[in-house]
Amino acid sequence: MTSPQNDPAPPPPQGHTHAHTHSHGPAAPVSRHLRKVIAAVLIPFATAVVVGLIAFWPGGVPDHERTGVGFDRQTQDGKVVQVVKVDCADVNAAQVPPTGDTSTPSGREAVNEQEGECAKATVEVTSGDDKGRRFVEVVQPDAPRQLKKGQGVVVAYAPDAPRDLQYSVIDVNRKIPMALLAGIFALAVVLVGRMRGVMALVALAVSFAVLTLFILPAILQGSNPLVVAVIGASAIMLAALYMCHGVTARTSVAVIGTLVSLLLIGLLGSLFIGWAGLSGNTDDNTGLIKGLYPDIDMSGLLLAGIIIGSLGVLDDVTVTQTSAVWELHQADPEMGWKGLYRAGIRIGRDHIASVVNTLVLAYAGAALPLLLLFSIAQSSVGTVANSELVAEEIVRTLVGSIGLVASVPVTTVLAALVVSADRTGPGGAQAATAAPARTGRGRRRKKG
């Protein structure tokens, strides 16, 4: 008798308010019993992470004697103050092979460099003890990096070399454009995400701090890379998810789903790295690390990289799936956990397809120069896949993808069980939010 009197005006605002609140605001609170269950899982886990951070805290990067090779060189800032074009033959930039054979790529390159026009650049050191010192850098015409007046550069310092050869240009100084791009990124995140965007940036800073202050130094100190990666990734996960999405049951379910998926990735990665005989020492950089720190477990370092690399995408998948299940429940509070799971997994299948494709293409893009070399050599697919360089990327991609795929049903079923079990909990907010939804559907059916 009373509902017809309320039909003309109240229902639309109530329906709108209900949808708006749960789509963009915090999730409806769950019962005290469920909060206790979730806390019983997460508090010991968070405590273990804190204990692990304390136990494995490195206290800084260990000292070593610089080799002067690759990234292990002393560097300073510099600036190109003058560039003069000269004949390459006058500065002895290259020599034609003694046999005069120009049929090889090296022979043709030497001829071109000797007959071409080189750039003779005067570079001034702008930082360090030798600030103001100048040296000459000869740039050959076929060099991939050409210098121009006023350009900022990075120079390497070799103290044991003759004075005229102590400094050399090794790269371009990109600090200003990189800082500007970072500023544009931060501004875009804050403008679009507002407070959520600010918290996302804070979480990003925390993640970077854990990586640079804990994970990397601890590995260099000789700690097990897998243990360090698990502790560090767990700390990053807890900080990022709770900072960005709030301390709620919904976020807690996403944390548990992410943790289960990380454990699966760790187990699969350990199994297949050992089975495939991957050493983790495949290029000059990893070789240099092994040479400087012989006690580092390079295969463990590879596994640690897989875990950390998968974490960012896992966060996205688990949070999205949990939010989807929560919103499905708010839309139909009568739906049981099986119905919630079936509806959530349909959403998850689309997510799986896009995320796996993204991950594979990201790794393929990073390895594109290597793939081009194999293509030039006309190697078969089997030969390419069997080489350790490519096999390492295949294991990294597939293990991470399996973890991502598994995270969808795991997180969806956890969220469905939690949110549906809460229906039978002590009344409160859950019952209050469910009643208007049922009444609204009844009224809409009458109107239809």
Question: Can you describe what's shown?
Answer:
- The protein is an alpha+beta fold and 448 residues long.
- Helices cover 65% and strands 9% of the residues.
- It has a five-stranded antiparallel beta sheet with strand order 3-2-1-4-5.
- A hairpin with an 8-residue loop joins strand 2 and strand 3.
- Helix 7 packs antiparallel against helix 9, helix 9 runs antiparallel to helix 10 and helix 9 packs parallel to helix 13.
- The N terminus and C terminus are likely disordered.
List keywords for this structure.
alpha+beta; 14 helices; 5 strands; elongated
In brief:
This protein has helices at 3-6, 11-24, 32-56, 105-115, 175-220, 225-245, 249-275, 284-292, 298-331, 337-366, 368-376, 381-386, 388-421, 428-447; strands at residues 74-87, 117-125, 134-139, 152-157, 167-172. It contains 14 helices and five strands.
